[in-house]
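Closing statement on the 0O2 sub-project.
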Amino acid sequence: MDYAEDKHKEEREAMNGSVDSWREVILVYTSALHQVQTKLEILNDEFQHVHRYNPIEHIKGRIKTPESIVKKLKKNGRESTIDNMIQYVNDIAGIRIICSFSSDIYRIAEILRNQKDITVISEKDYITYPKASGYKSYHMIVTVPVYLSDRTIDAKVEIQIRTVAMDFWASLEHKIHYKFEGNAPENLKKELVDCAKMVSDLDNRMEQLNEQIQGLESGYENEEY
Ligand code: 0O2
């Protein structure tokens, strides 16, 4: 974010925060995001080295915009303060991990759970228990320590893990949800639920296919992009 221009002055001011404290908070969350991203990249490289296989297709990270932070606090009936933002907004730093197969999702969640400097605050398994909308994804809220010169801060990071197909679905559903401000026409909602079923079928079939070819693979060098 470009703070030289202070693009989000209005939201920051709504948050009753000075430029310095606002910048420090964002710096902490950005560092936490980088730490988790680096961990994931190392894990993926190690997997490639040991198993000749990448469980992670790609990783996307983002810092929530001040506008969205203020909106979320308002939605939950909370005053826009920096303290409330730290305490109640769990996804200021957010990472989305996209995998090829459903089994990779649980494998990655397990590895993250076992990392010494990661503390899991909560987990939601929307894959085993999808939302009524059809949404599927595995969510974790974790904290990682961010070492500043004079203290250590445990910063929250929201991690969403899902397959390529689940991500494709969620992106379109998100667009529709926002376009209609949460009140999408019934026919579109129904169509999305149908598509979610197709996504689940596709994921299951791809998983089974992959299991079948595991046993057949020998001497196959995968030169991935
Ligand atoms: P946005 O616009 O993506 O940021 P919490 O964040 O924990 O306070 P909640 O709703 O209890 O709020 O958490 P949950 O269910 O884990 O959802 C967190 C995020 O998951 C959402 O963030 C979405 O990004 C995503 N998500 C949850 N449900 C759906 C869904 O039905 N469809 C899609 N496309 N995404 C979903 P935000 O802040 O609600 O929204």
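The domain at 3-165 is CATH 3.30.460.10 (Beta Polymerase; domain 2). With this model delivered, the sub-project is considered complete and its resources will be redirected to Aim 3.
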